[in-house]
Amino acid sequence: MKPLGVLMLDTRFPRIEGDIGNPSSFDFPVIFRTMTGIGAADAVAAHPDRPRVLAALQANAEALAADGAVGLATSCGFLGLYQKDLEALSPIPVATSALLLIKTLTGRKVGVLAASAEHLTPAHFEAVDAPPDTPVEGLPSDSSFASTFLRNGLTLDRAAVEREVIAAGRALIDRYPGVDAVVLECTNLPPYTAALKAALGLPVFDVIDLLNDFRTRLP
């Protein structure tokens, strides 16, 4: 089977099984390419330097295609902001973000659990054809999650992050009682999907779900 390419942010934090940056998260071949100099702060931003980030996405997409990738993913859900732009520039199909799942969950009231609620804007949702007023809950800026994944820490306290994810999920449901399905924006959150499903009693979808389906539609 031909590989899926993953455009990686320039980070150093641990990537456990389930994380998009761990090859064991997939049942098919993947190849990774780091976008040097494009880190979490460049992606998780309400008003990023779009020309700079898109140029990096395009250049690295072309390189992955040349290396044999038959489709492209990215290692940050916030890069869904570039879905349509990158589709127009990439030589191979693109699935930038788990946020693309929202439009497929017809009949559901979808809420999003994000790395940062304050930086996820209506523009991000519009770029993936999702309602711009989609309910969002973020992980706290003083959380163990943020210390590792937003501030590029070298260690990961998995148990602490799992507790934070469950607390954020409950906060989402409490704030938006009509939500009956959750999409995890962040590509570092799939290791906690099962625990969140169990805690909320609701379906939870993540980037691995997106890419498993995406891969079935590629050569």
Word description of this protein:
By secondary structure, the chain is of the alpha/beta class. The protein folds into two domains: 4-97 and 209-216, Rossmann fold (3-Layer(aba) Sandwich), CATH 3.40.50.1860; 98-206, Rossmann fold (3-Layer(aba) Sandwich), CATH 3.40.50.1860. Helix content is 35%, strand content 13%. The chain has eight helices and eight strands, in the order ββααβαββαβααβαβα. The strands form two sheets. It has a four-stranded parallel sheet, with helices on both faces. Strands 6-5-7-8 form a four-stranded parallel sheet. Helix 6 crosses helix 7 (193-200). The longest helix has 18 residues, at 158-175. The relative contact order is 0.18. The mean pLDDT is 98.
